[in-house]
Fold these 3 entries.
Entry 1:
Amino acid sequence: MGASGDHSKTGLAIIAGHGDLPRLLAEECQASGRKYAVVEFENIPLVWASTHPVIPTIFEKTGQLISQMQDADCLEIVIVGAMNRESIDPSKLDDKGRELAIILSETMKGGDDETLSSIIRFFETNGFRVRAAHDVLPSLIPQAGVLTNIKPSDDDIFDASRAAEIVTGLGRLDVGQGAVVGQGLCLGLESIQGTDTMLEFVKNNREGYAPNPTGGRGVLFKAPKPAQDFRVDLPTIGPDTIRNAHDAGLSGVAIDAGGVMVLRRSETVSLANDLELFLWVRPKE
C-alpha cells in the first residue's frame, strides 16, 4: 500500500538477498542522502555491504529485526534479491519469528505469490510500509521500445507474442515468469530454478527443434505474473541474462513494458549490442 509524500525523509530497510539489486538500492540511498540500512542475514553474506550501514540478523529472530529496524528509524522496507527456502531452527525462534514461521508454513504450499503476500501483510501489520525496488530507483523499469541497435524481426515478434501467451499461463498457475520460444515452439519454461537454469536447458537441448534453418532463432520473454504484487519478486534481467541468451543461441530478449526491471541498464544494453542481440521492451497488448 503506497503512501503519498516524500518517502526520502523516511528511513528505508533493504532486506537483502543474493544478486545485484540490493547493492544498487543501497548505492542509490547512499548517493541521495536517504537514511537507510541493509538487513544482512547470517547465511547470505554481502561482501559489498561493508561500506553501508548494516543490520545483521538471522531468519529466526524476526522480533529482534523489527526492533532493530524501528531503532534505525527505518519504517519503510524493500525486500529484494534471491532467497532460498531456508530450514528454520525452532530453538532460535523469538515470538515474532514463531508467528511468521506459522504463517509461512500455511502459505508456502500455495506458491510464491501467496507466500510473499503473507510476508508483506506481516510487516504491514507490524507498522512498516513495504515499497517496490523501482519506488527507490525508478530507472530500473525502462519505457517501451527497442533499447538496442538490433531490432526484432517479424519472426522474433511472432515468437515473443507466443511466449507472452505461455508466460501468462504460467503466471496464472504461479509457476514462473519467463519462457523461450523459437519458430513458434516452446523451447523452455521458467520454474523455481530460475531464468539462467532455463537458458542453460535451452542451450543444451534446442538441437533439432528449429525446422526452418532460416527462421527465427528464438526469443526469451519475461513478464510479471497476472496477479503479481509489484512490490516483491518483480522479474529482472541484466548482463548475465543477455550473455546466457546469447550462449543459448537466441535472437534476443523481450520484456513486458512496465513490469520487468533491467539491472545495470547501460552495461546490459551495451553487451546486447556487442553480441548482436536485441533487447525489446514490449508494449502490453
Entry 2:
Amino acid sequence: MNFVTFHTDSDPTPRLGAVVDGAIVTLPGDMVALCSRGAAGFVAAAKEAAAAPATARIPLDAARLLPVVPRPGKIICLGLNYADHAAEGGNQRPDYPSFFLRGASSLVAHGAAIQRPRVSSHLDFEAELAVVIGRTSRHLSEADALEAVAGYTCFNDATLRDYQRRTAQWTIGKNFDATGALGPWLVPASDLPPGAAGLKIESRLNGTVMQSSNTARMLFPVAETLCLLTEAVTLEPGDVIVMGTPAGVGYARKPPVWMKAGDTIEIEIEGIGVLSNPVENEAQP
C-alpha cells in the first residue's frame, strides 16, 4: 500500500493518507511520524486503511497531493551518480559522491506545475530515485544502513543549467522555487527490492522517452550513500536523499532540450509509479 500527503479544496490542512483502490483513506498523524514507526507502522496503517468503510474514501481526483514529505528537515542530493550521465557532461567517474542540498521551498507536488522562472529558459529535467529516512541515524554500516530507510518515491531534480554553471557550487541552479517535484506517493521499503536496486527509471517529455536506465547502475547505491553521509551528518525521520540521474538530460543533447510552458514531464520508476508535472512560466508581477 502506498501513502500520500494531501489536502482538499474544502480543507487546506495537510493530511496523511493511504491509497486504496484509487481512493485515499485519511490516517492520523503525518508522513514523518509514519516513517518513524518503521515497517510495523506501515503494516498497521495499511490494515487500518483497508478496514475503512467506502464512505471514508476520498477519490484521488478530489484530493490535491502535496510533496510526500512537505517540508523535509534535509534534502540531500547526489550529482554524477550514474557513469553515463557523468560522461555526457564531460566529467570523470567520481571517487566520492558530489553532495549538494535543496531547500524545502523548491519542492512541488505531483500534478502541480514546475515553474520556468522569469530569469532563465534553461530548465532541464532529471529523473531520480528519492529515499525517505525513517530512523535517526549516525555512523551507519553496510549491514544496517537500509534499516534507516522508510520508503522510496520519485524525484525530478529540475535544474536551471545556466545558474548551475555560474559558480563551482550547484546550489543556486538547483533551488529555484517549484522545481523539485517529489511524489506521487511513498512506497514502503519492504515493498521494493533492498536499496530499490534493479528498478527501471525513465523520464518522458511530452510522451517522448528522454532518459531510460536502471537503478542498478548507480555508482553509489543507497546503502553505501547512507554510510558515507552518516560519517558526517545525522539523518532524521523525514529527511530525503535524492540519488542522482542517468544520461539523457536536456543540456547534453544537440541542440539542447529545455522544458517550456505547456510541456508535461513524467518520471517513472518501476514499482513506484509515475510523477507527472506540467510546466508553466513564473507569473509576472
Entry 3:
Amino acid sequence: MGILWPGAMGSALGRAWRSAGVEVVTSLDGRSARTRDLAGDLTALGSLEEVVRVCDAVVSVVPPAHAVTQAEQIAAAVRRTGSTPVVADLNAVSPATMGQVATVLEAAGCVVVDGAISGPPPRPDGDTALFLSGASCSPFADLAAPGLRAVVVGSEVGAASATKMSTAAVYKGTKALLLQSLLTARHHGVLDAVVADLSTGAPELTAHLARDLAVAASKSDRLPAEMREIASTQAAAGAGAELYEAVAEVFERADASAAGAATPEEAASAIDLDAVLDALTRHR
C-alpha cells in the first residue's frame, strides 16, 4: 500500500493498515519538515514513481484543492512505470471533482475507488469511518484495521464523496457557526453568558471549545477549498451554493489570523477560549 502523502491523516492511515498486516510505503520527496516528522517510521521510498512501481494499491490523501493535480501525477507515474495499482482517492471533494479524478486515473489504466474519511486520524482506541464506493472497493473494504471502519456506501464513483460532503457540511459548518457566534459574543462582552447557555442546550459543542476552534483555525488553509466543494455539491443537488461559499469566507478569515498560523499539533493543546478568540481577531 502506498500513501501519498503521509501528513497527519495519511501517516495515521498507513500505520492503521500496517497494524493489519499490510506492507505500507510512502515517499518524502519534496515534503515539508512537518510531514517528515509525521511520517515517522513509515517506510519511505525515493519518489512517487517508486511508490507506484512497487504497490498494489495507492492512496491519495491531499488537500482538496490538489486532488486533481495529484491524480495527474499518479497517472503520469503509472504510464512511466507500466504499473497499474488500484488508486483510492480519499480527498474531501465533490462528486464532480471525484469524477475528474476518476477520468484521469482510468485513462491511465487504473481501477479507481472513491473514498472519504470521516473523523480524526485513526488510532487503535478510536472510530474513524472510511466511506468507500465504486465498482470494486477492494482491497480497502476488506481490511480490518484497528480504529478504522470501512463503510461501502455505493457501487458508483461519487457516492463516497457525496457522503463526505454531506457529513462535513455539518461537522465543519458547526465549527464555522461557533467561530462566528463566539467572536461576536466576545466583541459584545457576553461570551461567558453565551458559552453557559450553549453548555446547557448543546453540551456536546462546548466540551472542548478552545481546542476545537483552535484546531479548526489551524486547518483553515485547506478548509475554504473543501467548503467550496461542499457548495458545488449542494448547488448540483438544487440546494444552492451560497451557504458554504459564505462558510469558505469564514475559514479564509481564520487562515489570515494569528490562530491560523499554528500547526494542528500546536492547536490541539489549546485550553484558553479567550486566547483562541483573541488570536482569531489578530492578523498573522
